[in-house]
Amino acid sequence: MCVTLFTDLPDLVILNVLRFLSHFDAIQAFYNINNNTDRILSLLIEGQCFSSMHYFRLSLFNFVCDHVLSRIGSKLTHLTLCDHQLALAYQKQILLYLSNVLSLHLINIIEITESDNYLSYFLRKQLKSLTIEFLSEHHFEAQAYVCEQFIFSKNSESLTHCHLINDHGIQIKHRILLPNVSIVNMTIQLRQLSDLHVLFDYLLNVKILNVKICRWTVEDIKYDYAKLPKTLSHLIEFSLQSDHALSFNQMIIIFRHLIHLEKLSFLYRNYDEHGIDINQLEIALTYLKNLTELNSIINFIYFNLNPKLTFENNIHFKQRWNIHTYKNLLYKNYVAYTQPFINVSYSISSDILLEDSSTDFSSITNLTLKTHTKQLSLLPIIRSLNSRFSSVTHLHIIDSFGIEDNHNDDIKLPKVYSFDASEIKLSNLFQILLRSMPNLTHLQVNLNVLIACDWKLLLANNKIKHLELKTNNLDQINPILFYFSSLEQLIVNTKKQSNQYKRIYIQIILDWFHRCSQLYTIHVKAHKLSDFLYIEHTESDKNMHVKYSNEIFTLWR
């Protein structure tokens, strides 16, 4: 009988196998195969598998830094790191070996101090692409440093693509900035409209701008929009998301002056007492002579809808841009969106739009589903997800009312691998949903809801690798972890819980590692960490890397 070993395969065949795996899975599976380590390492390098180092456990991270990066050299052009890895990567001076890193992605950047500023080491002049995910709402040092010392400064002469993420919005106004002439593509979450005005003034050559406004801005804010045709002469694609942060009139004024646009996308949600002025939108778009593509979602709640303030009153405009509308008279909700529906992420109320079966939502991969009334069951809607939302892989359920539903429905959602159940209030609904997702690897849930389930049976043979628990009772976590045999990353979020908790010792957290042999990263979040943990004598060593700030404590092994 002829037996072919994996290492007997030709290099090209192994490279093709690696392309079907994530970089992390490829390294975990193959980097240390018997005596073929050297050859496999060369193939992993050839496959660019070492660019996403944020998934690595501490031992693998050290191995790559000490023995692999020197062999990669200019072959590695992109690098992804987490906040807790920056200090160690700086100590090992990894960029000495990586002379051609042009793209950088930093995850969960929290805060920096003068003595702990590793960002300056990684923000190099040669960078062409930068993505940073900021974590904290309360610390602005890291955001200010990135904006003032790198993006809007003399150090950004090569930067062309920039992506800044903060769910609470990034404040640009009041920074000491220089105009940026290199960025052509920017995606950013901003605190309020005045921060967008700063971008308009300082991004001189931007061609593609994707913006989300996170906080409400007053109507009478002053800005000279008339100068935009000249100052934004290169802007051809603009996307604006406003979830109760802007009025419709504020959006119209912006669109009206971006006369060079070829593509416009916007998402608008608000309360509009009588409707929105569609004629003003049509007039604004007439100034955009080069506009060939419009993608929009408009969703507002009204009190007494004026038929003249709807798309139905302007059939020509509705037909030209292929706008589909739906109205729920019972809950006074109006939705209008362009077809085909191209958004990959969307948040939808359970009693609106889903009732309209005429539209295909197969483009959506990230869906947030909210309950809007106590009387409505979620399960019939969830049962329809496979047919209506056939591509959803991330599902977020917001059960505002704690709907009781005892139907033992046979629901199957095999494509969903990420489930945010942190805002589900009742254990029976959570239990039904969790059973419907056999391939789940990422889960967020309130620990009280999980414990109230038959969790020993529910968690049997689960595949969950990333778990986030909302709780302030850390003593309840240990017995649960026994049933997460595949767990690699654990987040304990106490921020939105009651402040009635006792201060604990780090040993309680260290015990979690003994429960889960695959667990290598733990994050504990708190409003004020020093009130929650005794961490004075916690230091890093070769087996455990420790990092903590005012709000988050990280153990990485």
Mean model confidence by pLDDT: 86
Helix content: 25-40%
Helix/strand/pairing class, anyone? alpha/beta
Low-confidence residue ranges: none
DSSP strand content: 15-25%
The helix count comes to 19
Query: CA-to-CA gap between the ends?
Result: 43 Å
What is the topology, as strand order, of the major beta sheet? 1-2-3-4-5-6-7-8-9-11-10
Rounded to an integer in angstroms, the radius of gyration calculated over CA atoms is 25 Å
Sheet with the most strands?
A: 11 strands, mixed
- The backbone outline, from C-alpha atoms, is globular
Q: How many runs of DSSP E, i.e. beta strands?
A: 23
Descriptors:
557 residues; alpha/beta; 23% strand
Description:
This is F-box domain-containing protein. This protein is an alpha/beta fold. The chain has a domain at 1-74. Helix content is 26%, strand content 23%. It is built from 19 helices and 23 strands. The strands form three sheets. The chain has an eleven-stranded mixed beta sheet with strand order 1-2-3-4-5-6-7-8-9-11-10. It has a ten-stranded mixed beta sheet with strand order 12-13-14-15-16-17-18-20-23-22. Strand 8 (263-271), helix 11 and strand 9 form a beta-alpha-beta unit. 33% of the residues are buried. The mean pLDDT is 86.
